[in-house]
Amino acid sequence: MTRLTTAVRALVTALAALLAVTTAPATASATSGPKAPEDFVALRSVDRTIIQEIRYFTPHNFVGERVDGYRQPLCILTGPAAEALHRAQRHLLRRGYSLKVYDCYRPQRAVDHFVRWAEDLDDQDMKGEFYPDVDKTRLFEDGYIAEKSGHSRGSTVDLTVVKIPARPTRPYVPGEPLVPCSAPRDERFPDNSVDMGTGYDCFDTLSHTLDPRIRGEQRANRLLLKDTLEDLGFVNLAEEWWHFTYKPEAHPDTYFDFPVSARSLVAPR
């Protein structure tokens, strides 16, 4: 009986040790996740006056649901890009305007989510607003969706200009009737930004920054954003009036996948 008890105890002890070894890494991986490099910061730690409306944290986007990897409605950027936005904000505030960011760093898992959505031709719930005149079969060919995004490198930002004092933008209600993003401002989904001629993330050639059909106040608003940012080192993507990349990029060849969360930052503030 004594020998049996001793053997059982030894077996239990060995199994417990084995279980601890095999489960500890899995638990750590599930709770911690990847971290951002040290030069990534929360924009609010650099400038708290810039308005943040992180669309991919909400269902109000072309996918129609919160996008993978967006755990908080937070703008994260490399430090130099964030500092350049701070300088742009100081310039605009003196003129009675504020920047508003829609998206900043974007994890690769979010880009993968976009790709899966684009490949699912049956999912066209948000077509009425974001791509009313584009056949979903052409999203890759026309360049609206790609397997990699400069946002994942941390120095690219989607943003607009808001007249201050800023009026709040009403919340989007999932399932509400959709209006084309290319419709006149008074008809499309309300946004507290100045009139840029289309809504954000509008899959339409009207979104091209210098499209000749965009004139008057709309063109002036686009040029206000473009000129302000380009004077401080940003480069505009010609096909999207809202898309700017700070140059030189801190990580020109790396596509990161840490979640959009304060916990991803080395020293969140």
Short description:
The chain is of the alpha+beta class. It is built from five helices and seven strands; from the N terminus they run H-E-E-E-H-E-H-H-E-H-E-E. The longest helix is centred in the first third of the chain and has 31 residues.
Q: What does this 3D model show about the protein?
A:
35% of the residues are buried. Strands 2-4-5-7-6 form a 5-stranded mixed sheet. A two-stranded antiparallel sheet has the order 1-3. It is globular, with a radius of gyration of 23 Å. The chain has 5 helices and 7 strands, in the order αβββαβααβαββ. The chain is α+β, with helices and mostly antiparallel strands and 269 residues long. Mean pLDDT is 89; it is low at 1-32. It has helices at residues 2-32, 79-93, 108-119, 127-130, 216-230, and strands spanning 40-42, 51-52, 76-78, 97-103, 156-163, 234-236, 243-246. The N and C termini lie far apart (62 Å).
Structure summary, number of beta strands: 7
Distance between the termini: 62 Å
**Helical amount:** 25-40%
As a whole number of angstroms, the C-alpha radius of gyration is: 23 Å
Structural class: alpha+beta
Unreliably modeled segments: 1-32
Number of alpha- plus pi-helical segments: 5
Strand content: 5-15%
Judging from the principal axes of the Cα atoms, what is the shape?
globular
Give the biggest sheet. 5 strands, mixed
- SSE sequence, one letter per element: HEEEHEHHEHEE
